[in-house]
Amino acid sequence: MTQALERSILETKTMQTTTTTKRPKTIITSGHLKLTLPNFVLFKASQTLALSLVVLILVVCSIIQHASSTQKTTKVETDKKTGDIEEEPQLVIHSLFKPEQCDRRAKSTDVLTLHYRGSIQGSDSIFDSSYDRNEPFTFQLGIGQVIRGWEKGLVGACVGEKRQLVIPPHLGYGNAKHDQIPPGSTLIFDIEILKVEEGPTPMLNVFKEIDVDTDGRLTRKEVGEFLRAQLAQANRHGDSGSADDPDQVQMVDEIFMHEDKDKDGYITHDEFSGPKYDHDEL
């Protein structure tokens, strides 16, 4: 665990309020995390998040990955029953306007500020719009803060450029349920790039740190063991508590409530919203 992550944990612990129990609960608000991004683009934190969410998600706010390839690829899946090969629909990128001079193109590790308007293919209704809020959206490209369609579709964009992204379900929200987005929806985003800036230095691949059996998904046991290890390091006394400690059980519950999108009892690589790539994977 890096010094930066340890400092983040220690800073969080200073916010604890002592109670009659030996180890008071660590509570942190979404305002402290500054996760004030829209529901439909980035994971929106609850009003109170336990230390576990800081360990797994706060680091997203301070890490950036290496440049990702701009080559568009078609993901091929084999039907287990018939053996048929089915090609998933590809991301479609329309450049609606591009300035004559482009001094800076967006790459993974950059911080982008933009306006966007999101709709569902086949529907005229707008489910989210930064224009309506008069509030540009800022995020870091390439670290899992936004849906994969944005991660792929905004690489190479210029300041002042307007793009329309037609995002198939597997690069959007898949079969997850949202109030205004039906499962399996193809999304259309009209995006205007306002600013492109250099981002901070990358940190560690947290997903790989937790996934000890390297099966590409996180179990409650793996998350709990990782959490206890970080608490022991933060306490500097080696006392990480037990697996059935109520506070730690609640922390793991909160992680799975937010990260296990399909509620199957596992957090997959795609579902995990924290840092999950090595530098050479993007």
Automatic annotation (TrEMBL):
Any Gene Ontology CC annotation = endoplasmic reticulum
Reactions it catalyzes: [protein]-peptidylproline (omega=180) = [protein]-peptidylproline (omega=0)
- List UniProt keywords, sorted A-Z: Calcium, Endoplasmic reticulum, Glycoprotein, Isomerase, Repeat, Rotamase, Signal
Q: Which domain of life is it from?
A: Eukaryota
Which residue numbers delimit the EF-hand domain? 198-233, 247-282
**Protein's UniProt keywords contain Repeat:** yes
Q: Which GO terms describe its molecular function?
A: calcium ion binding; peptidyl-prolyl cis-trans isomerase activity
Q: Where is this region: Disordered?
A: 263-282
Q: What is its EC number?
A: 5.2.1.8
Question: Does the keyword RNA-binding belong to this entry?
Answer: no
The record places domain PPIase FKBP-type at 109-197
What is the recorded name of this protein?
Answer: peptidylprolyl isomerase
Query: Where does this protein come from, organism-wise?
Result: Aceria tosichella (wheat curl mite)
* The gene coding this protein: FKBP14
